[in-house]
Amino acid sequence: MFTGEYRHSIDAKNRLAIPASLRDVINEEVEGKGFFITRGLDTCLFMYTPKEWQGVVSKIEQLSFTNKKARQFQRLFFSKAQRINEIDPQGRILIPQYLKEIANVQKNVVIVGISNRIEIWDEKNWNDFESEHDGEFEEIAEDLFQLGFSSNDKG
């Protein structure tokens, strides 16, 4: 499970160091080697292990091809996906330029562990997101749990 918030920089060659604490939770024999990276929601990038990526693919494949929005989403999501086969010895991955542009990622980034995925945010966008929503945490949780988000609401 990916957790935590880490501030890093993308170098001049578009390489980003993935924190050791995130790399260390991956069992390559179970999860697969490398990552899949694609456009995310809310102006960030999503990164998945190969095993998690297959789960995402399976869910998206269940969308009806006769639904126009489903086709649009599939095209936009998968056309921007990139397989990252390996992490270099310094723990870095190469971020494709087109993905940097989609997510408006500049030099300073925030890497966020979100359970089954890693999100990569431009530092300013992340700070803006936190400023806008941090005070709403309890309200958001309440709304989700009232909608039946979890059958175990005891904590």
Please identify the structural class as seen in this structure.
Answer: alpha+beta
Q: What do we call the CATH homologous superfamily?
A: Transcriptional regulator MraZ domain
- The number of helical runs is 7
Q: Assembly type of the shown chains?
A: single chain
Give the mean pLDDT.
Answer: 92
Number of domains: 1
Q: What is the top-level CATH class? A: Alpha Beta
Q: How much helical structure, as a percent, in the residues?
A: 25-40%
Radius of gyration: 17 Å
What is the correct CATH architecture? 3-Layer(aba) Sandwich
Shape: globular
For the biggest sheet, the summary is:
6 strands, antiparallel
CATH third-level topology: Chemotaxis protein chec
Query: Quick one: how many beta strands?
Result: 8
- Give the strand order of the largest sheet, numbering strands 1, 2, ... along the chain: 1-7-8-4-3-5
SSE run: EEHHEEHHEEHEEHH
How much of the sequence lies in strands comes to 25-35%
Poorly predicted regions are none
Distance between the termini: 18 Å
